[in-house]
Amino acid sequence: MTAMNESAGHPISFGNHWLKTVLVSALVSLSIHLVCINVPRNPSEVICTYHLPSTAKRLLSCTTTSPVPQLPARRGNVFVVEDPIRLHHWQLDEDGDLSTDKRNKGETVPHSITYVPEKKKWTDSEARAALQAAARSRKHGDHKKAQVIIEHAMNLAPEHPDVLTEYGIFVETVRHDVVLAENMYRRALGYNPYHPEALIRRAKTLPLVEEIDNKMLQEIHRKHKYFLQIPRKNPALRRAMQESYFQYVYHTVALEGNTMSLVETRSVLETKMVVNGKSVIEHNEILGMDAALRYLNRSLVHVGKLTLNDILSIHRRVLGFVDPIAAGQLRTTQVFVGSFTPTGPENVASDMFQMLEWLNDEETLQIDPVELAALAHYKLVYIHPFVDGNGRTARLLMNLILMQAGFPPVIIPVEERLTYYKCLQEANQGDLRPFIRFIAKLTDNTLQSYINSASTCEAVECSRSISTPTIVT
């Protein structure tokens, strides 16, 4: 069956044309069918097949091998540890979460790729309005109103460099607290390194803060020198040291949640009798701390360079009565402490060796012993080498360094728990000075307490008159 092309005069075959049309339609139908079967259900998986920047693919949770959806990985033997020392070592996004690959690598999550919801934008605008109102009130001398408004702005936008700077100006000019002001300027520059007001004001306050810190350390060493002149046979001093021993055990286990009172703690240590209504674990925590302190006093305080085995020996005594299997052993599983994910178990040993290499280095030993003790405490908690008992071991390491330098052990009172954790958190955000100041103030108060006891107490009355060192502001 043929037809004649009117313009060209060539015949056209309707049969061949029809066959080609059928074949093309079949191929198109087959292609659509295959695409529908294999298309991913999640639209982001389609996007992941394109050549996107690595940061974009991380935000979309793209896999490197296939765009097919992946099931959540099973944790297996992972421990989820609720340790009282909450560290937030990485920069958090707006929701307080870390991306999965950043957890593994231990890198910070850049704020530039963080999604900002509409509510956050509205909060920022409100914070800016509050900021302007606070500045006007401060300039007009209405300090109470300015304080209320700027604190409200801090709650709305605690990471806004303008808000941080204005809060620093307020505490510097109204409260005359240059230490806190400098800290606010430093935080503001952390979010905007070129903030002009923060740059100028930090340049002015930083030398003042350094002078304050140096004077504090000088005062500590003046008291330390006086303390060393007190005869060790002084009965009042001996009673004060004995009472301090019980208080140290009580406070350091209380920081971990132990509910024993000071009287009950002393009873367990002196009589080894059971306290009714208290758990076996709480009894064993006290006995373990007693064993660790005795080990420090009788052995480690006299050694030179510390080794990994020394740290493990401390931990073996701290946790030996509670968990004999884990005591003295570096963790072999990943742990999670709140929103903080410590280093992987495969890196714990190497991190500990690096810390000890730093601690035994000649240049490190030139650091003021009070500062060094605080830094060593922080580094051990940062590594988190054990499944449990990291805080207690870190506080013992801190006091070991102080004792080797001739200082008495420092007690971190349970009443200062929130300040203790806040200073550790600030250290993880990049500023170690608040934590060093915290330990330095406790050291100063401890020395003053012993000096007062030795000069004013009678031997019989010392156990009643020595009070727990508190933070002096």
From TrEMBL:
Q: What is its EC number?
A: 2.7.7.108
Where would you find this protein in the cell? Membrane
Class of enzymatic activity (EC top level)? transferase
Top-level taxon of the source organism: Eukaryota
Q: How is this protein positioned relative to the membrane? A: Single-pass membrane protein
Q: Where is this site: Important for autoinhibition of adenylyltransferase activity?
A: 256
> Mind telling me which GO cellular component terms the entry cites?
membrane
Pfam assignment, any one: Fic
Where along this sequence does the record place binding of ATP? 388-395, 420-421, 428
- Keywords tagged on the record: ATP-binding, Membrane, Nucleotide-binding, Nucleotidyltransferase, Repeat, TPR repeat, Transferase, Transmembrane, Transmembrane helix
- Pinpoint the Fido domain residues: 306-441
- Reaction equations catalysed: L-threonyl-[protein] + ATP = 3-O-(5'-adenylyl)-L-threonyl-[protein] + diphosphate; 3-O-(5'-adenylyl)-L-threonyl-[protein] + H2O = L-threonyl-[protein] + AMP + H(+); L-tyrosyl-[protein] + ATP = O-(5'-adenylyl)-L-tyrosyl-[protein] + diphosphate
Q: Which PANTHER family match?
A: FIDO DOMAIN-CONTAINING PROTEIN DDB_G0283145, PROTEIN ADENYLYLTRANSFERASE FICD
What is the protein name for this chain? protein adenylyltransferase
